[in-house]
Amino acid sequence: MADNPALFQASQCAQGRPKAVVFVHCQNQDRLLHHESEAKQTMRTAHVKDLMSRCQKHGVKGHELDAATYQDVAPLLTDFLIKHGVTDVHWNVSTLLNEQRRDEAVKVLLKQAGIRFHEHQANYLFPLGQVRKSDGGMYHVFTPYKKQMLARLYQHMPLPVPAPEWVTQTPDSTETSVLGWPVGEAAATQRLHDFLESNDYANERDRPDVGGTSQLSPYLALGILSARQCLAHAIQVQGESAMESVWVSELVWREFYADLFWEYPKLVMNQTFKAQAKDLWPGPEHLFDAWRKGVTGFPLVDAGIRQLLQTGWMHNRLRMVTASFLCKLCLVDWRMGERFFMQHLIDGDFASNNGGWQWSSSTGCDAAPFFRIFNPETQSRRFDPNGDFIAEFVPELRGVSAKEIHNPSPETRKQCGYPMPVIDYKKSRESALLWHKN
Ligand SMILES: Cc1cc2nc3c(=O)[nH]c(=O)nc-3n(C[C@H](O)[C@H](O)[C@H](O)COP(=O)(O)OP(=O)(O)OC[C@H]3O[C@@H](n4cnc5c(N)ncnc54)[C@H](O)[C@@H]3O)c2cc1C
Q: Would strands 116-120 and 88-92 be described as parallel, antiparallel, or unpaired?
C-alpha cells in the first residue's frame, strides 16, 4: 500500500477513498509465458489476500478477478468496471511486451465504454526508456548506465509516495509464510530496515555461508517493496553516501536489465543479445538432468541448486557459479537453465534472470568474457571456506572435513553416498574454451 502510486492517486481523485481495489489474476498465462514458479505464484496470492483484507478493514472493497489468458483481461475488467459504475481507473504499468499488449487492449475497451484510465509508474526508479546516452541510444555497458542513472538521481530523487490517508493502521505482521518467506508488507519493510541498520554488504555479499545480502528480491519481484523505497531508506540510514554503495549499484543492475528488455524486445523472445552467439549448444541431456537435481558431484554447485529447490531462492554467487557450470562447462543451452530458474525461483524476475543468464553464458550485453569460466572448487574454497553452506544443503557431506568437503576423494564420496563428478573439470574447460571461442 505504501509507494503504490495507482492506489495513492485513485484515493486523491476520489475524495480520499477509492470505490474499489481490483486485482486481476492470470496465473496460467504467467506460468506459460514466464514459467513462473508455484512458489512465486503462491507468494503473490498470499500478498493479494493480505492487501484485500487490509483494504476491507479500512472500508474499501477489494475484488479479485480470474482471467484465463491475457486476452481475457480486457473484457473481464471492463465488464466489471461498467457493472460497478466506475468512471476512472488507475493502474501501475507493466513494462514487459505481452503485458503492454494486454494493457493496450484494456485501453481500447475502456475508451469504448467511456471510462477514463490513468497509468502510473511503480516498479523502477525512473520510467524505463529515460536513462539514455546523449544520442538517445541505450547503454550497452553497465558502468556508464549507472553513472547516468546516479547523475539523474542527484538531480531529481524519485521519492516513494506514502500509503493513502485512509490507511490509518500500520500493517499487522501476518503469521503466514511461503517456503519460510514471511508474507506481508510489514515483514518486507522490517527486513529492509533490519538489513540497512546492520550489514557488512561490501565484504559479505559474496559469502553464501554468511548470508550477508538483503534477501529482499522476492518482495521487489512482486512489488511488495519498491526500488524507490529501498533507495530512500538507504539514504535515510546511511546518508547520501548510500548512493555510491555497492548495494545501490545492485539495485541499478535491476534497472539496467529491465531497460534492456524495454529497448530490445527480442530479448523477451528467447534471443541472445549478441546476434553472433551460437544457437545450438551441444551439452547432453544427462548433464542438465544431474544439474537440475543437484547431483553433479560438485558440492558447491549441488548445494546451490538444492538451496533453490528447498527455499525458492539462491544466493547470487551461486546463481553465477551454477549458471557458469551449466552453460560454460557442460555446454548446455543457457535458456534451459533460465527456464529452470524461473520455474523454481520465488523471486523470478524475467529481465534480471534473463540478464543473469546471458551474462553467465557470454551471450548478453556487458556479459562475462567467453573465457571466464568459474572453477567450482576454487569458488567453493573462497566463498564457503569452512564448507558450512555445503554441509547445510548437501547433508550427505556433513562431517566431511573443511579441507576435503569442496572436492571429496572417491572413497569419501562412496562412504557418504555422494556422486562422482559428472564431468572432468580440466577436460571440460579445455573443450568449452575452444567451443566458446569458435
Ligand atoms: C543466472 C542469474 C539469474 C538471476 N535471476 C534473478 C531473478 O530471477 N530475479 C532477481 O531478482 N534476481 C536475479 N538475479 C540477480 C541476483 O542474483 C538476485 O537479485 C539476488 O541474489 C537477490 O538476493 P538479495 O535480495 O539478497 O540481493 P541483494 O544483494 O541484497 O541486492 C538487492 C536487490 O538488488 C537487485 N539485484 C541484486 N543483484 C542483482 C543482479 N545481479 N541483477 C539484477 N538485480 C539485482 C535485486 O532486486 C535484489 O533484491 C540473477 C542472477 C544470476 C547470475
A: parallel
